[in-house]
Amino acid sequence: MDYKKTLLILVFISFLFNCENQDNATLEVLIIPQPQEQTLGKGSFVLNNSTGIDYDDNFKVSAEFLKSYIKEGSDIKLEGSNKISFTKDETLSDEGYSLEVLPKNINIKAKTDQGAFYAVQSLRQLLPPEFENGTFQGNDIAIPCTTIKDEPQFSYRGMHLDVGRHMFSVDFIKKYIDALAMLKMNTFHWHLTEDQGWRIEIKKYPKLQEIAAYRNETLIDHYNTQPQQFDGKKYGGYYTQEEIKDVVAYAQNRFVTIIPEIELPGHSQAAIAAYPELGCTGEQVEVATKWGIFEDIYCPKEETFTFLEDVLDEVMALFPSKYIHIGGDEAPKTRWKNCDYCQALIKREGLKDEHELQSYFISRIETYLNSKDRQIIGWDEILEGGLAPNATVMSWRGFNGAIEAAKQHHDVILTPGSHCYFDHYQSENKDEPLAIGGFTPLERVYSFDPIPEELTQEEAKYVLGAQGNVWTEYMKTSQKVEYMVFPRILALSEVIWSYPKERNYKEFVSRVEHFHKRMDALDINYANHLYEIEGKLVTNNNKPAYQLETSSKGKTIRYTLDGSEPTTNSKTYNNPIPITESVTLKAGVFNSEGKLGETFSQEINFHKAVGKKISINKALNKSYPGSGAEGLVNGISGSDTRYGDKEWLGFSGEDIEIMIDLGEETDINSIETRFHNGQGQWIYAPKEIQISIGDDLFKTIKIPKSNSQIVDIQISPVEKGKIISLRIPNYGIIPEGKQGAGNKAWTFIDEIIIN
Length: 755
Prior knowledge:
The protein is an alpha/beta fold. It folds into four domains: about 5-150, Chitobiase, domain 2, CATH 3.30.379.10; about 155-520, Glycosidases (TIM Barrel), CATH 3.20.20; about 535-605, Immunoglobulin-like; about 615-755, Jelly Rolls (Sandwich). It is about 25% helix and about 25% strand. Strands 7-8-15-16-17-18-19-20 form an eight-stranded parallel beta barrel, surrounded by five helices. A six-stranded mixed β-sheet has the order 1-6-4-5-3-2. A hairpin with a 2-residue loop joins strand 26 and strand 27. Residues about 1-30 have low confidence and may be disordered.
């Protein structure tokens, strides 16, 4: 017996021994998304050349996928008598399956080929990661005996990709679809048209390929960076209809439905650049070279509807999906307000205003698509002015759109920015690559519940599922897309497949850590933040202390308070660290071999309000709750650029009043705070704030207009007091010509420092 065989047998015996000496829960944690039921048996099935496969045409796609996967991943031939069998079971749901691994055979039961395909994806994760890239060495692999019964919670399980801002190769689109299929997601929302580029070939309108598909240059750095600069390089491209047919067929073989999005009436400047007559002014415009919202939108003229119907005819010929996404979001009404044709149309149709004109526009498109046996999905702005009769709402601006639509008995898909926008930062590490803003870490995605608590059980039936969105303003490469998507897609896949009672974040993190090897084998450029540290100020014996924790199991945290790098000789963290002065705390996660991941670093400014009682007259916004009201007096300032991190509190269109109780009469030498002013994200510093000490108004501070991202406020009252109040009126309505025009602004406030 050669050395390799001896070693393999020893590993196999050790594996079996460990299997029998571990409880079932330990071995159930290997599959993402987590199955509904999983029971560990005794022994294992050995996959080798004695293994065969048995199926009929009902399961051709799933069985052929498994055969190809094993053939390409190993030297195993699947020509033996120990069978992997596919059997039809009418008692299961369409996407449900059972997977039974026994010592002599593996039984896959499903009602449909799609259900069997998901069984194969679970079986795939019971095989070594080396199968993913064909590097598995050996002719035998032991699969632990287990029984899985599984089905999804939601029928719609999706991921989105914007190719308008930046375009990606067909090979990458297929790789993206592969990842969705592996994680039992069934929908790919392909965002094909934008202000910055039209990405689908439409044969009847060649200028869409010649003009709309290309922009003259692209914005450099962040939108909010002033002055804005551009790279001076032409950028663009489009997918031919043959390429799209190829991608659609590829997705169908993985039970992924592709929903195309053709944006209207807004986000249409690229199309209007090609055909100016589609706009209200008829004037020539350029394909947009920077991000944001643009005033040139489709004019609701008959020739516009003819154009869109022609486009949609070609789109429908390529995509067999039940749904066509028509956008409907962020459509400024400036051009319509100043357009004689639009105003006459409003009067002729008896419409109330431009919002009802948008509803008219959407309804026209919906009627046409319904006549072709298709249905529309639109972003939640399609609720404004009245919802089209058969529309499905994709709720992105929080949960309210979903709640409103479900209560009107319309189907909804949840994709709130607070939990499902994978273009947001996922770590507070200062070395994170540039993102649009916001803060959506892995744990927040995993905490997402797609069914709003405001819905009754009957109304909740209209929630079809959820989707992750990937807007690519700041993602120029496929590697960057992967970094922003993985591992957050793993969390979302479990949210929309598994039932809430099954979720445990720390246990999930263990599975993500295990999944890293599979992503390595798949050459996925994932972000690894599992060894980062979360810190927060807490009260310990009525005194401020700083708490550290990591989601990674079986590791040690070591820290310093003098700004030096933590080492294996640094203090071990066991309990919250008392904070009695300003410090620079640094910490790291360690195992027996040394430090893992990046160093955690936190400046704590110990001022007179740290840890004191604080209240706010408005409920915290679900999307941007920061660290709660207490986060405004925890000694920690937010990022200069990331308005959505856990230190910034965001309020949408509300006047707020903040009250701080210092506990006793205290000398107050100065009061400082600051506001985010990222106007590209609808965030405006207030025009004034009022500060009171005790019952008396101390001072009203007028805040001049500024283009700076951060607006600092500092006053030196030299007063004595116990209660300090800050009244902060909202900026008001965002003016015409600005991003988010016509909407109330957001207010974002940071630490309130009292010295």
